[in-house]
Every structure is written in structure tokens, then in C-alpha cells.
Design goal:
Its EC number is 2.7.1.113. InterPro entries: DCK/DGK (IPR002624), Deoxyribonucleoside_kinase (IPR050566), DNK_dom (IPR031314), P-loop_NTPase (IPR027417). This is Deoxyguanosine kinase. The chain is α/β, with parallel strands linked by helices. It has helices at about 15-30, 45-50, 50-75, 90-100, 100-115, 130-140, 150-170, 190-205; strands spanning about 5-10, 30-35, 85, 125-130, 175-180. The chain has one domain (about 5-205): Rossmann fold, CATH 3.40.50. It is built from eight helices and five strands; from the N terminus they run βαβααβααβααβα.
């Protein structure tokens, strides 16, 4: 059976993924799946000592996202119902490849593929790309305490990693439509016209 619209909103930390996914969910009247972030018990420790707590942090995220997407597949995708998510499962590798090393990274890769290779994948990705200054402003504005002292070099590297990841997905999954949103110039929260343009593109795709 042909898969219905499965939309993922992606981008580095502070890009506005959850905000845009929620706005589109309300506009299109389709359910939204939001990733668990602040509930991760290792977040504070991770930002204080990345090397020490990366594996625990990444495994918590992976297991929670796996369960969410397994449920999403059963509730919506298997029934050919549209759904939107504020992440793509591939983000786990984006972060893990940067933070894990050696044996831990090898183990994580094996577990990742074991859990995710047969999960439903989005057929539409909205990729919010923004420069470092824009991301830092948005991170400061939303006020999560554990993000306020984030290493700017780490965030800049994430921007580059996301560009590479989107290119990889485009090459590996040619049937997936990727729409890149210039988050530095486009403010879909403050400018209704900007959001309307994004929503119009998505409506065309899922029509």
C-alpha cells in the first residue's frame, strides 16, 4: 500500500522544528509527533561533560524515538493517514557520530540500525537551515537552562553535519522530497506571510 504523507521537520538545535511542526499540524489538521527532549535525565550532565555522558544521552533519545515512531507507524502510516513529526530518526546518527568515539560509536551504530532500519521513513522533510547567530538568539530566547552555555563550536559543527546529512538522505532516498527553509531570512513565527508560503508548499505536496 502506498504510504500517506509522513512529514518530518528537521534542523540543528534552535532552528524552530517543534514550533513549525506544531503550526503546520494546526494549519493542516493532522496529528503531530513531538520528540522528548527535556525529559532526558542526562541532558544537564551531557552539556557539562560531553565525553562522559554522550552514550547515555544518545541511547535514551534513540530508544524513545524508536518507540514513538513504532507507534506512529501503527497508528497512522499503516492506515495511510498523514502525520507530522518534529524530527527524523536519522538525527540520532548526526549527533552520535559527532559525540561518540571508538567502541561506543561502533556499538551505537549497530543498535541504531537494528532498531531503525525497518521503521517508516518520512517522504517529506522540511529542513530549517540557519546560521550560528540566528540559532544562538533562538536558543537564548527559549531559555532552556542546559542550553545556555552551549559550545558555539559544537553548534557550528552541527550546522555543517546537518547539511551533509540532508545531502546523504537525498542521495539515499530519492523518493523523499526535501524542502530547505532559510531560517536566517525566513521567520515563520513573526511573519505570517512566511509561514503561509511554507504551508502552501506542503499543501501542494500532500494534495
Amino acid at each position: 500500500m502506498k504510504q500517506g504523507p509522513f512529514i518530518a521537520v528537521e534542523g540543528p538545535i534552535g532552528a524552530g522544528k517543534t514550533t513549525l511542526a506544531t503550526m503546520l499540524s494546526n494549519e493542516l489538521h493532522i496529528p503531530v509527533v513531538k520528540e522528548i527532549v527535556e525529559e532526558n535525565p542526562f541532558l544537564d550532565k551531557f552539556y557539562q561533560n560531553i565525553d562522559e555522558w554522550s552514550f547515555q544521552l544518545e541511547m535514551f533519545f534513540l530508544c524513545n524515538r524508536y518507540k514513538q515512531l513504532e507507534d506512529t507507524g501503527l497508528q497512522y502510516i499503516a492506515k495511510n493517514k498523514p502525520v507530522i513529526s518534529d524530527y527524523h530518526i536519522y538525527k540520532n546518527l548526526i549527533f552520535a557520530e559527532r559525540t561518540l568515539k571508538g567502541v561506543q560509536r561502533d556499538k551505537y551504530r549497530q543498535i541504531y540500525h537494528l532498531l531503525t532500519d525497518d521503521l517508516p521513513k518520512p517522504n517529506i522533510i522540511l529542513y530549517i537551515r540557519a546560521d550560528l547567530d540566528t540559532l544562538l538568539k533562538r536558543i537564548k530566547k527559549r531559555g532552556r537552562s542546559f542550553e545556555q552555555n552551549m559550545d558555539t563550536a559544537y553548534l557550528q559543527q552541527l550546522i555543517e553535519d546537518y547539511d551533509e546529512a540532508m545531502s546523504s538522505i537525498a542521495a539515499r532516498e530519492p523518493s523523499t522530497t526535501i524542502i530547505t527553509i532559510d531560517g536566517t531570512k525566513i521567520d515563520f513565527v513573526e511573519n505570517p506571510e512566511h509561514f503561509a508560503q511554507i504551508a502552501s508548499q506542503v499543501k501542494e505536496l500532500i494534495r
